[in-house]
Structure formats: structure tokens, C-alpha cells
């Protein structure tokens, strides 16, 4: 380049040559260009906006490098290294944050989060006994009129109660004989009192709903529990519409727990538009990937009675037409978006949750109903396969809720059918949850290049899963060690509000297999702390095709980070569960700081 520059200067000495010779003109332009490049190369890089020094930085790069300090410019990491080197980059306007020896990790992510919990109804999240549940309901009744429906928020689970069981109809009747009560537990279950059963005319003669379950007690009487599609027997008032203000409040709670990215697993187009507006107005403090979910699986479900192979598979064309029409009406394209809000694919589901995961083998007694209950199949094979194939033709990634091994069978059959038409390898289709995979399923998953979206349900629900499925299956639930050993990318999350949203609890559970109230289950499925950090950071970035722009602390990547008071790689394991986040940054801006 220097030779070209000097030759151009010699040419410029002859003005006539410059104006009359095309060669002169060419070399003159090259000389000027080279000069400009040289000047740019010599110009000093801009000083960082922010530097963080005197810390213990766990980068989660390919070498799991450890550093002392970080520089951030324009919302991205621009340097990572020793204190002295980073301090030398600072300018007069650079903000310096002294970490005082605290630990920095990449921003944490949740690959399957519906919301942060809470709501306008009865709060049971702090209940620790059935007496606490009844007291909370009794307080709401005192504030209500006769006949008002009493509804709970969904962010609670019976495993948090010392009795390790649900409050059933007769329990609820003791505090509310007249007002209808509906306890909403997670996303798959209601529990009603007698007044509510009467209100909606649910009796022992009410037929079981396909894809659902009306349960009974040991005497054959209704116990008030409605699972999955049986919930459609009850018509609750609509929840308040999601607003920008409500999303901001939720995101603040998530930031305080160290979350910088989330993946919403099946929200509406309306919510996606709200998130886009928040990004446009600079109101987002968390990065969002959203799966869409359209209601295409009505009337294609069945109750899981009888072995899975015995089922009538039905037909699926109506679901395909509904899906195609819904996509056209949404005006949303596959994978559209940016670093703040993006579309991550389409959510489907084929079975229930804790109490309805579809299994090859019956549930443990008494839930197995004398060997006849295998869970609930919420979308039959033919209908589901047709929708999956159509989504693949339209260029959409598919993420499917599948808890039990029979549900995983159905997902793999559909994914294989889609793959036969148009390869899905490398497209990062997922199984959401994947609680109970079997040895014969791992090679099929691997051949499809699937990503596993795994959560810490066992941490919350361990005792319940032992009751529903028996100790062996419960201990195998979400076998992260088995998935990693077979080469799968596992992206971690919580399924909040079904399970509380703190990501450090996910890391703690995956590292220890400890549960809130049931002790250690499946100790052979523990993973290392480094693996758990990857599961909660870079693996979630991989899930959404963003591993080159976030998920680790490296120059050029988005400056999303979390500051912790202790070294998460070496502190006592219980400290991980108990640790409070010191600070959260997204795009180089502080979005949470502990007072």
C-alpha cells in the first residue's frame, strides 16, 4: 500500500498527466485512499464508556478464561483483560466501576419463561401449608361479595406445602362453602370447591374430556381437580390485558435476578407487537426471543387411557388450515427481529405437565387408575404431524412441549416426517422440557440435530413427581447429564411462573440435583458448575442463533453481564441458591443494582 501511495504522489507532480492520463487518475485516487486508510489506522480508538475493574471475570469463552477487568463501548465489550491494561484505555469521560473483588459472569438467560408470576388474584406463592392456602382464600372471601368467584394466581405448587399434596374440594369447602373457588396451579390444572363444581355443573356423570382428566378420590367422588383440556369445563373471567407497564414491571423483577435475555414460549402476536413498541421507545431492559402459539389443536386431543400404541390417531387437515390462516393474519415472518426482540419459532404441545405427562408406562398408583392412566395426549399424532410438516414447508422452526416418553415418541415421529421432506438439521428445532427420554430416543434426537430446552421443574416438584410417576422416573426427570454426554446442546430455563424464575436456582439444581423439599433426586445427573453456566448463558444464545453476539464476555459481543458477590465456580453449593445479584447490565447499561 505504501508503494502505491508513493507512486501516486509522483504522478501528482505532473498536473497535465493527472488530468489527461487515466493511469494517473487511477493511481492518484489510490494514493488518496491509502492516505485516508493510514490516517484512520493511526487514529486512537475511542475511550470506553465504562470500565469494570478489580473483579473476577468468568468469561465463558471457549477456554473459560478468567480476567480482572472489562471495557464497554457503545453497548458492546471492547476489551477483556488485566486491570492495568483496561485502566489504560480509560478517558476523561469513562465511568469506572470498582468491583471490589466480586465475580462477573455473562448475562443469564431463561429459555422458557412465560411470565414472572404474580397477578390480581389470590397470592399462594408464599403459602407453606394447606392451612396457609385456606387462610389466603378466607381473607379474599371477606373482601368479596356472596357468590363472587375466588381465583388464585398460578405461581404456586403443592410441593411448597409441608403436606406435599394439593388442597382438594373438601379442603376448600371448609373455608368457602358458598363462594365458588378455583385454584389455578401452573398452566395445566384447576382445583375447584363444591360451589364451583355446582356452578359449572360438573358431576360424576360428566364425561372425560379428550386430552384432559377429571380426577376422583379413593371413594370415586370428584375431588375438584381438572387437568389440561378438562379445564375447558370452567369459564373464568379474562385476565387483564398485557400492557407495556406490566411488562416493564415484570422485566425489572427478572433483571434483579440476573436475567438479561428471555425466550417467551408461545405468547400472542399482540404481546410481540407490544415488545416491538417497547424496543422502539427504548423501554426494554431485557432481550426477548418469542415463540408464537396459535390455537390450532382444539378437538384433536385425547385422554391418555390405554397404551399409546393403541390410540386412534385421527386426521389433521383442519389444524393445518387454521395454522396457515393464523400465520397469514399475523403478518409475522420466521426469524424476524433484532438484538432486542426477535421471533424464535412456533410453539406446539402434545401432552400435559406434572400431572399429565404422556407416558409409555402407566402412572404410579393410585394415579395410574389400576394401570390404565398414562397421562394426557393433547394433540394426536396425525393432526400434529400435519401441522409440523406445514410449518417446516413455510420455513418456521418448531418447538414442542413434550414431558413424557410417549409424548417424545410423537414429537420425533412428526419431526422425522418433516425432515424427510425438507431437512431440519442445523435449524435448532427443540423439544421443550423432555423430562423422560428413553435410550432408544437419543439417537433419533441426535439425527435431527435437536436442541433440548430444559428447566428445573424437579427442583420445585420433586415429591409430587415421585408420587405421580414413582421414584425411578422422578429421579430421571430432566437428565441433563445424559443429554450433555450424548452431545446435545441444553439451554436452561425455569418455565416460570410454573417454577420460580431465579436463574441461580436453575444452576444450583442442575449442579446438585437438590430439590426444595424432597432432597437430592437423580444424583447421577449432576453437571459441573462450568457446564451449568454454559447452559444458562452461551447455550441459550445458541438456541436463538445468537451465540456470535451474546452469551459470553468477549470483545465485540453485547455487553450483558451480571455481578455476583461470590465466585460461583468455587463457593459452597448452597450459596449459589442463596446468592443475591449485586448488579445486572444489559447493553452496557445498569438495569439493576442492589441497594
Note down, in words, how this protein is organized.
This protein has 595 residues and is of the alpha/beta class. It is 33% helix and 20% strand. The protein is built from 20 helices and 25 strands. It has an eight-stranded parallel beta sheet with strand order 8-14-15-17-19-20-21-22. Helix 1 crosses helix 3 (22-42), helix 10 packs parallel to helix 11 (381-393) and helix 17 runs antiparallel to helix 18. Mean pLDDT is 89; it is low at 1-32, 34-41 and 298-316.
Keywords:
33% helix; 8-stranded parallel β-sheet; single chain; 20 helices; alpha/beta
Low-confidence blocks of residues: 1-32, 34-41, 298-316
The backbone outline, from C-alpha atoms, is globular
Distance between the termini: 56 Å
Strand arrangement, largest sheet? Answer: 8-14-15-17-19-20-21-22
Helix content: 25-40%
In percent terms, what proportion of residues is strand? 15-25%
The main β sheet shows up as:
8 strands, parallel
Q: What does the oligomeric state look like here? A: single chain
Structural class: alpha/beta
H/I helix tally: 20
Mean pLDDT across residues: 89
Write down how many β-strands occur, each being a DSSP E stretch of 2 or more residues: 25
Radius of gyration: 28 Å
Amino acid at each position: 500500500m505504501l508503494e502505491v501511495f508513493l507512486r501516486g504522489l509522483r504522478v501528482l507532480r505532473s498536473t497535465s498527466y493527472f488530468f489527461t492520463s487515466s493511469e494517473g487518475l487511477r493511481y492518484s485516487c489510490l494514493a488518496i485512499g491509502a492516505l485516508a486508510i493510514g490516517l484512520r489506522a493511526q487514529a486512537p480508538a475511542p475511550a470506553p464508556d465504562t470500565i469494570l475493574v478489580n473483579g473476577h471475570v468468568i468469561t465463558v469463552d471457549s477456554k473459560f478464561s478468567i480476567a480482572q477487568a472489562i471495557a464497554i463501548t457503545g453497548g458492546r465489550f471492547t476489551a477483556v483483560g488485566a486491570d492495568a491494561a483496561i485502566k489504560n484505555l480509560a478517558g476523561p469521560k469513562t465511568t469506572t466501576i470498582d468491583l471490589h473483588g466480586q465475580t462477573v459472569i455473562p448475562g443469564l438467560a431463561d429459555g422458557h419463561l412465560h411470565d414472572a408470576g404474580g397477578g390480581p388474584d389470590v397470592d399462594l406463592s408464599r403459602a407453606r401449608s394447606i392451612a396457609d392456602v385456606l387462610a389466603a382464600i378466607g381473607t379474599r372471601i371477606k373482601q368479596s361479595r356472596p357468590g363472587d368467584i375466588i381465583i388464585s394466581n398460578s405461581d404456586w405448587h403443592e410441593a411448597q406445602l409441608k403436606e406435599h399434596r394439593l388442597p382438594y374440594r373438601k379442603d376448600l369447602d371448609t373455608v368457602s362453602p358458598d363462594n365458588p373457588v378455583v385454584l389455578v396451579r401452573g398452566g395445566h390444572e384447576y382445583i375447584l370447591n363444591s360451589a364451583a363444581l355446582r356452578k359449572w355443573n360438573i358431576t360424576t356423570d360428566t364425561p372425560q374430556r379428550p386430552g384432559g382428566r377429571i380426577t376422583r378420590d379413593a371413594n370415586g367422588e370428584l375431588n375438584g381437580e381438572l387437568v389440561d383440556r378438562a379445564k375447558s369445563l370452567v369459564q373464568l373471567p379474562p385476565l387483564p390485558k398485557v400492557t407495556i407497564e406490566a411488562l416493564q414491571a415484570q422485566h425489572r423483577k427478572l433483571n434483579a435476578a440476573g436475567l438479561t435475555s428471555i425466550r417467551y414460549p408461545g405468547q400472542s402476536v399482540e404481546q410481540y407487537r407490544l415488545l416491538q413498541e417497547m424496543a422502539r421507545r427504548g423501554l426494554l431492559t431485557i432481550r426477548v426471543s418469542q415463540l408464537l402459539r396459535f390455537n390450532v389443536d382444539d378437538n384433536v386431543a385425547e385422554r391418555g387411557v390405554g397404551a399409546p400404541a393403541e390410540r386412534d390417531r385421527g386426521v389433521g387437515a383442519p389444524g393445518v388450515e387454521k395454522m396457515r390462516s393464523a400465520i397469514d393474519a399475523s403478518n409475522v415472518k420466521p426469524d424476524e427481529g433484532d438484538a432486542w426482540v426477535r421471533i424464535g419459532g412456533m410453539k406446539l404441545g402434545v401432552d400435559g405437565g406434572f400431572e399429565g405427562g404422556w407416558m409409555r408406562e402407566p402412572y404410579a398408583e393410585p394415579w395410574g387408575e389400576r394401570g390404565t392412566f398414562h397421562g394426557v395426549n393433547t394433540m394426536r399424532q396425525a393432526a400434529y404431524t400435519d401441522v409440523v410438516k406445514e410449518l417446516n414447508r413455510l420455513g418456521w422452526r418448531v418447538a414442542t412441549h413434550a414431558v413424557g416418553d410417549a409424548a417424545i415418541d410423537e414429537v420425533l415421529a412428526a419431526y422425522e416426517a418433516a425432515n424427510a421432506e425438507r431437512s431440519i438439521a442445523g435449524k435448532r428445532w427443540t423439544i421443550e422440557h423432555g423430562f423422560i427420554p428413553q435410550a432408544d430416543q437419543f439417537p433419533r434426537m441426535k439425527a435431527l440435530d435437536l436442541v433440548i430446552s430444559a428447566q428445573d421443574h424437579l427442583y420445585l416438584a420433586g415429591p409430587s413427581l415421585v408420587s405421580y410417576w414413582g421414584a425411578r422416573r422422578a429421579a430421571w426427570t430432566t437428565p441433563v447429564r445424559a443429554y450433555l454426554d450424548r452431545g446435545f446442546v441444553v439451554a436452561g430455563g425455569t418455565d416460570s411462573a410454573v417454577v420460580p424464575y431465579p436463574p441461580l436456582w436453575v444452576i444450583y439444581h442442575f449442579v446438585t440435583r437438590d430439590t426444595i423439599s424432597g432432597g437430592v433426586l437423580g444424583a447421577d445427573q449432576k453437571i459441573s458448575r462450568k457446564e451449568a453456566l454454559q447452559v444458562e448463558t452461551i447455550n441459550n444464545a445458541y438456541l436463538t442463533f445468537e451465540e456470535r453476539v451474546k452469551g459470553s464476555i468477549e470483545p465485540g459481543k453485547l455487553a450483558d453481564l451480571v455481578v455476583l458477590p461470590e465466585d460461583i465456580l468455587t463457593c459452597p453449593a448452597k450459596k449459589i441458591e442463596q446468592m443475591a445479584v449485586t448488579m445486572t447490565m444489559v447493553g452496557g447499561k445498569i438495569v439493576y443494582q442492589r441497594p
